[in-house]
Amino acid sequence: MKTFLNTLNGQLVASPSTFESLNPATGEVIGLVPQSTPEQVAQAVAAAKAAQPAWAARSDEERKALTLKVAAVIEANADHLAQWVTREQGKPLGGVGPGQVPGARFEIWGCQVWSQVTASLDLPMEVAFEDETRRDEVYRKPFGVIAAIAPWNWPLLIGIWQMIPSIRAGNTVVIKPSEYTSIGTLELVRLIAEVLPPGVLNTVSGTGQVGAWLVENPDVNKIMFTGSGSTGAKITAAAARNLTPTTLELGGNDAAIVLPDADPKAIAMDLFWGAFLNMGQTCAAAKRLYVHESLHDALVAELKAIAEAMPIGNGADAGIAMGPIQNRMQFDKVVSLVDQARAGGATIVCGGQPTGGPGYFYPLTLVTDIADGASLVDQEQFGPVLPIIRYSDVEAAIASANRLDVGLGASVWSKDIASAKAVASRIQAGTVWINQHGAIHPMVPFGGVKRSGWGVEFGVDGLKAVTQAQVISVKK
């Protein structure tokens, strides 16, 4: 059984103990992951701190060129990395391009594209004010050492979202991957660190305690975290002790509202993928679907037909569109929420029972005859289950969308764009899509409101988020 290694100051480093990484489709052990020690976490931060001044001193063009080299390394190793994503996270290999299942190959392609786009961005000096007496110039400076903590659902892509803007802007990084999906990240960093100076990019794998040691280190200058609200609260408390800035993406419970003029047949496929991409294990997936009563039955029938036609199985097999839930904890949560809905009188349109056998497989499940207040509606299920709520009044649907304490994304579906935009403007979410859901883009800022976190990623705004403003004010 192969033991994978952390990257620390340009070297591959083992730890005194390891833990097993499992394939969620088969239950088999696929590798051993280092359990980083407190000393190794401190060493990784120290290496990043030592490397940062020289990295920041490089010209912007040099850092651009090296970021493009990172993208080239990802492209050259795309199949190797995609295979690890499928084995460890569970999503099917899929492909890239129209008509392809958006799985592991899509994730690695996203890593490449986000790196290329980030390399193309500039943060030029801006003149904030000038008159005959003074000139005030704003420059963007790196924070220093960035601590990144990545989740298990899109482990490599979200890791890239954290790492690449940080190093592009002159920071150095220590990243802790999820203990559920460490190997792919360790391999990604091993490969891309080869084209970067030692210490610019470092990993510390392990359980949540490793993340705690990392964010508590006083030499960390900013923390980037994507994950649960409960863990985000712990990170916020730790960051407060050192007054460390944070960017937090804490998931959501995205509402999708289908207006009365929508065409069920025309929107069904896009709605389906908006809800069930990556088996629903996506932060900005549609997790509550509000459908006008005039369209409810027709849209449910369209979604049912799509769900029942999707092949589910081991993502390494050909022709698979949907894989397993990634881990036992999440699997048990999904089972519990559906069982509670059934016990409360909801209708299970399709799915609704574990498939049995090895792996954490659960069928695509649609639930109707359910309302606000049910656990399946009010809690983020983060799995292959979609509650569909019938409504009669658009005002009530907007109120339902806004009633929870999270607000990452949302969507509105309508033939009338002006009407859809009017509804969208009243929804409390960081992004509201119209006639699409979860359609992120590397040039478009992305982040949540309320308890979905703060700060944004992507594009120029995301690059600014890993820098600090410095004003140079000149008296004339």
UniProtKB/TrEMBL annotation:
Record keywords: Oxidoreductase
Active site: 249
Lineage: Bacteria, Pseudomonadati, Pseudomonadota, Betaproteobacteria, Burkholderiales
Name used for this protein in its record: Aldehyde dehydrogenase family protein
Aldehyde dehydrogenase domain residues: 17-471
Domain of life, per lineage: Bacteria
CDD domains named among the record's database cross-references: ALDH_AldA-AAD23400 (cd07106)
Cross-referenced PROSITE patterns: ALDEHYDE_DEHYDR_CYS, ALDEHYDE_DEHYDR_GLU
Family indicated by similarity: Belongs to the aldehyde dehydrogenase family.
